[in-house]
Amino acid sequence: MKLTLPDSKYKDSYLNALKEYKDEDREHYRSINQNEIENDFSAFVEKIKSRSRGENLFKGYISATEYWLIDNNAFIGRLDIRHEMTEFLRKVGGHIGYDVRPSKRKTGYGYNILKLGLEKAKGLGLKKVLLTCDKDHIASKKIIEKCGGIPAKKVSQDPGVEKLRYWISLE
Ligand SMILES: CC(C)(COP(=O)(O)OP(=O)(O)OC[C@H]1O[C@@H](n2cnc3c(N)ncnc32)[C@H](O)[C@@H]1OP(=O)(O)O)[C@@H](O)C(=O)NCCC(=O)NCCS
Fold it and tell me: What's the mean per-residue pLDDT of the chain?
């Protein structure tokens, strides 16, 4: 199992995973056009990679590096490391976002993707990272705590977005 930069060689399994994410209407994947990326997957991969250089960013987004969790040569999940903090990330999003494709959940990949992601974050020069999850998100809470998350100070948030916040030291 490895966490690696996006690569066209994982096209088939990524496209299969995309169908699963679309079926559950996962936000990150909503704007990805299945036909478009199927026709030019390398352009899609290059676009993702360019975001770590601050190019092709969505409105209000900052540069971030996306990695793919690969096992048995197939796409399993995605992890995103944001290079800096914004007001929104400090309160809601944190430094790292991740997901595991629906058909591969509950077998330990969630824990592994974050564990490997922390090594990448260290490699990017971050000294500590902020992780967040919804208060009732049992799986994510378990994963973050198992990876050494220390509860961070509560911050005022918009009504309805109750988040747990944790720091993980990388030193
Ligand atoms: C959160 C997510 C990454 C977990 O992935 P996963 O591969 O199922 O995680 P794991 O198999 O490593 O499970 C971690 C722990 O959570 C538990 N768990 C997993 N899914 C669960 C669920 N739906 N309800 C309760 N517990 C759950 C597992 O049993 C395991 O517990 P353990 O450490 O006591 O054994 C996955 O559900 C996902 O991609 N969700 C959508 C995106 C998301 O919420 N990302 C997190 C953003 S903060």
Answer: 95
Q: Do the beta carbons of residue 116 and residue 98 sit within 8 Å?
A: no
Question: Which CATH fold would you assign to the domain 2-125?
Answer: Aminopeptidase (3.40.630)
The per-residue pLDDT for range 76-111, each reduced to its tens digit, is 999 999 999 999 899 899 999 999 999 999 999 999
The amino acid at 74: A
- Residue found under tokens 């990876």: 147
- What the block records as the tokens of 95 is 């430094």
Residues 81, 46: Cα–Cα separation, whole Å:
17
Q: Which residue has the tokens 């961070």?
A: 152
Separation between Cα atoms, residue 42 and residue 22, nearest integer Å: 21
Q: Where are the domains of the chain?
A: 2-125
Q: How far is the CA of 32 from the centre of ligand 1 (A)?
A: 24
Residue nearest to atom 23 of ligand 1 (CA): 139
Q: pLDDT at position 161, please?
A: 65
Which residue has a Cα nearest atom 15 of ligand 1?
A: 139
Does the pTM surpass 0.85? The reply is yes
Ligand 1 centroid – CA 54 distance (Å): 30
**CA 108 / ligand 1 centre spacing (Å):** 8
Strand partners, 169: 128
Across residues 135-141, what is the average pLDDT? 95
